[in-house]
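subagent[fold] <- orchestrator: predict structure for attached chain, return tokens only, no commentary.
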Amino acid sequence: MTNEEAARRLEEVNAAISQVLGGGQSIQTPNGRVQFANLSELRAERAALESVLQGSTSSEGGTFGTPMAYFGR
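subagent[fold] -> orchestrator:
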């Protein structure tokens, strides 16, 4: 997943979280009940996407996110 895809997906997940918080996790329609995504699942997805984006920015230093030190001759 590229940074652009992860950022776009993060925006979608944030919008879905806002929708669930604003209107609840389910609604009643004339044809039946509609269940939206689970809020805890959306929050877990958001955390995973933020982790992906955070990891990609820290790897730009050339160490791939792993601190490195060299002691010796």
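orchestrator: received. Logging for downstream: The chain is about 55% helix and 10% strand. Residues 3-58 form one domain.
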